[in-house]
Description:
Blueprint: E1 2-14, E2 20-22, H1 32-35, E3 40-50, E4 57-58, E5 64-69, H2 77-80, H3 82-93, E6 98-103, H4 106-117, E7 123-126, H5 130-135, H6 140-158, E8 162-165, H7 170-174, E9 181-184, H8 197-206, E10 213-218, H9 228-236, H10 240-243, E11 246-251, H11 257-265, E12 272-276, H12 282-289, E13 293-296, H13 305-312, E14 317-320, E15 334-335, H14 340-352, H15 354-368, H16 373-390
Helix pairs in contact: 3-4, 4-6, 8-15, 9-14, 13-15
Amino acid sequence: MKALFIHDHPFIKDEKNGTIYTSGNLNSILWERYLKHFDSITVIGRCKLESDISRYHPAEKENVTFKLFDNVAGGADYFRKRRQIETRLIEEIKKHEIIIMRFPATISVFAAEYCIKNGIKYVAEVVGCSWDANWNYGGLAPKLLAPYSYFKMKKAVKHASASIYVTKEFLQKRYPTRASIIENASNVIIKDIQEQALPNRLLRIDNFKTNAINVGIIGNIAVRYKGYDVLLKAISNLPDNIKNSVKIQFVGGGDPSYLKSLIERYQVTKHVTIRGKLKAGKEIFDFIDNLDIYIHPSKQEGLPRVVIEAMSRACPVLASSVAGTPELLAAEFLHAPGDDKKLTNDIIKVVKDLPLKKQMALDNFERSKEYLFEVLEARRERFFRKVKSTF
Length: 391
C-alpha cells in the first residue's frame, strides 16, 4: 500500500544538489513510523532553497518521495495559488491508498475538502490548534483568519475516518471526530530516560545558590507566539534581589531581531544570552541539566515536546496553561497565556522554596515516563494497523 502525507511544513532544499532537509521533526527518522505499515510514502509540503543547510536535519529516506511546492510562501499564497495546490493534491490522492493529513495546515484542509466531497477515507493527525496558531501569530491578518481556519480544521477532523491526537483531552475536545479509529500519542521522541537524571537534579537543588539562578527556554527565537515577551516582562518585574541573580538562556534558530527588540524594551540585556541552535539529544539535555528552572510561556502549542524533555531531566518547569500543557504539569505551576504577573510570582516561589523544587523534580521525572518512545510507538503501531486493515 502507498501512503500520502500532507502538511504545510516548509522543508529546506539544498540549492547545490537538491537534497531535502528539515528544521523540525519531519526528518528521515520519522518516516519509519509509516514505512512499518506502508510500502512507500509521498510527502506533500512546501520548500525553500537555501545554501547553508548545516543547521538542518536530513529529511530524505528510501521509499519516501517529496512533491513540494517551491512557490507557496504561506499566508495569502495558499489562496492565490489554491487551484495549483488542489490540482497537485487531487493528482496525488488518486494515486494512493492511504491519505494522511497533519493539522493544523491549510493544504491539509484543501485535501480534506476534496476527500469529503468524493467520499475518500483519510487519516487526521491532530498536532495543534489552528485557532491558537493564527490568533497568537502576530498581526491583524492572522487574527482575521483564525475563525475561518478553526472551523475548516474542525470540519476536516470531524469527517476523518481515523484520527490520532498528540494530547489526551485538549485537542479532542476542541476538534472532536466521528472517526471509528481514534488514538492519542504525543509526537515526543524520548528514546530512554536516564535514572541518574533524578539524583543528579536533587544534588543540584541541594547545592543551589540564590546568587546564580539559571533559567532556560528552547524554541525558534523568531516566532512571536512562543511568549518571549511574557517571560522577559516577568523577569523584569522580579524584585532586585532575585532579578540580579537571574541569567536567561535562549536556545533555538531563527532571526533574533524580534527577540533583541524585546530584550531592549524590558531592559534585561545583562540577564540574557542568545545561544542559538543546539543539537537534539546530548547537547539539549546537557543544557537542561545546567538549568535551575525551565520556562515555557508559549501562547500556542499542541503538546510541547521541550517541556517533556525538560521533565525527563527532572528539571523544575513553569509554563503557560495553553493547549495540552495542563496534562503535563500541576495547575500551580501554570500561568494563563500572557499572564506575566503570575509567572513572576511562580519564579519567586520556586526560587525560595527548595523542598518544592525537589517535589517538582520528582513529579516531572515520573510523569515523563508516560512519554517514552516505546510506550507511544506501541499506540501508533496499533492505530496504523487498524487503518491498514480498515481502509
